[in-house]
Amino acid sequence: MWSLHSLRASLCVVLFCAPFIKSSLITASVDELENADFSAISEGSNPAIIFVGPLHHVHLMNAIHQFSNGVRAALLNDANFEHDTQATTGGTTGDWLVIFDELTDSAVKVYDGLSLSVRAKGLSLGVIDPKKSSRTAKRFGISSRSGESIEVILLRHSRLYRFGGPIKRSDFDDILNFATKEYQAHPQSVIPRPRMVFDEVVDWLVEISVALAKQYGQFTVFAFGTALLLILMLAVTTAITLCFWAIRRSQSATLPQPTPEPLPHEAGDDGGAYKIKKSKAD
What we know:
The protein is of the alpha+beta class. The protein folds into three domains: 4-70, no CATH class; 74-190, Glutaredoxin; 197-248. 44% of the residues lie in helices and 15% in strands. The protein has helices at 4-9, 57-70, 81-85, 105-120, 134-139, 172-180, 197-216, 218-254, 270-281, and strands at 11-16, 25-29, 49-54, 74-76, 96-100, 124-128, 151-156, 159-162, 188-190. The strands form two sheets. It has a six-stranded mixed β-sheet. Strands 2-1-3 form a three-stranded antiparallel β-sheet. It starts with a helix and ends with a helix.
């Protein structure tokens, strides 16, 4: 184990352009980091990996493996969004920075590099394609994106913060500032609940109504919708009535039949003897 004194004395920063042997290697102490010469790194190279720790080959290789394979942007979709983010249940998995963008190979590489900086701030980065995950996009009011234009939201402490204004995929500083410091200056709201099947059916009916109104006119669609609603209400009422009738009939069939009570004694039986004895006593 490294003591605190030895750890501070041996801290260095190793900057890799890519986790390969041929990559450029620059070492600098923490104090010399701001004045380090990074001109050897060619523009457009792979995202850099920064390792802060003791300059030891074991620690260095572990860091390279962690950063190159372990830290990546989470690819979210309709199936895993709520499970991974726990947005509605209170954010038990922490705060999430979610970016809505078209998931191309180049975009995924950019967000894998951005996830290092986001993870260092204590946040999780998730990327979701609004075209392929339309249910989640509708849930947060996100339209389909094209080009480098993106939508950014922050799920923090059961609140939704939405980046106001246009933003591009390459605006790293704006994304990080929004996620860490400036989110309170942007529009915020309650995190919407997950969309259910009923919501999808309602949206489908609305889309059908709008399409029919454009083709046949609003009055025709209104009359047809009213007639369909009345037929549906009549069918539901009939079904409920039949259910109650069937339940009552089954209950009456299972009730036990009452047993007949014994008839009183007729004249000439013991009752007559009782009357004779009573008259003698009198």
